[in-house]
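Project channel, design review

CF: Before we commit to the Vombatus ursinus constructs, I'd like one complete example in the thread so the newer folks can see what an input/output pair looks like. Taking Olfactory receptor.
RD: sounds good, go ahead.
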Amino acid sequence: MEGFNQTRVTEFVFLGLTDNCILEMLSLVAFSTTYVLTLFGNLLIVVTIIFTPRLHAPMYFFLSNLSFIDICHSSVTVPKMLEGFLLERKTISFDACIAQLFFLHLFACAEIFLLTIMAYDRYVAICTPLHYSTVMNMQVCVQLVFALWLGGTIHSLVQTFLTTRLPYCGPNIVDSYFCDVPSVIKLACTDTYLTGALIVSNSGTISLICFLALVTSYTVILVSLWKQSAEGRRKALSTCTAHFTVVTLFFGPCIFLYTRPDTSFSIDKVVAVFYTVITPLLNPLIYTLRNEEVKSSMKQLRQCQCSVIEKKH
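CF: and here is what came back for Olfactory receptor:
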């Protein structure tokens, strides 16, 4: 045991996205801007929903939770990535790496479950509108959100356990800009085939099953829309299109990355950037640009703030 402790890896070194100095500076500016906009956009949605009584409905309750998760999800990886653009040697301690891995999977899994719940919410609202207020009351919504966080925590604990149970005695070079299970277990000093299979059965299966459930829900919704009026069909299609766009943007990279942990491609880093950096920014844009109620609520909130400031002066 003593010999194991002496050779145990204490830190990991990231290769980052690129080793070109010019590209690193350009990436620093681009991703810094993206991160700030992500924080501002999602925080604006959360504040707008909290301070607008007419938005205190299940759909917007879930949307505010989605924005909160996106803030947390991007904050797990982006700050460390931005720091790496400024450093020649990009390192992270073993404990910090495991913590990053844990929270990455916690927020990613929570978002997967939340998007599935949001699809169910739209299914109930469109296919059984007379029972909607009974089926999706706020008590049920709170219970569903609690369940998704519990499920995300259990999933993340499993992923963390599978990673930390392996011995790490070198090498310590991670071909990425953040710690994730597939990239870290490759560095273990033992055969990781079984662990890789367990990852597929956990992360990959969750992503794939939830995505298939979502596709089924939206297919049923589209079929039922033909029975509704033109105006009702237009409004429902607008909402469902926004939801399904977010689902595709998030689930696509997750399924691509986590259903094949033993195989890596050169495009993996680009895909990872998309779902850890770009998607959290696109979510508020997609939902606000396609939702007139949210946009009007933001305008009213801004007008109220301006009126308060004028009165103070």
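RD: helpful, thanks. Confidence is low (pLDDT under 50) at residues 1-6.
CF: The chain has eleven helices and three strands.
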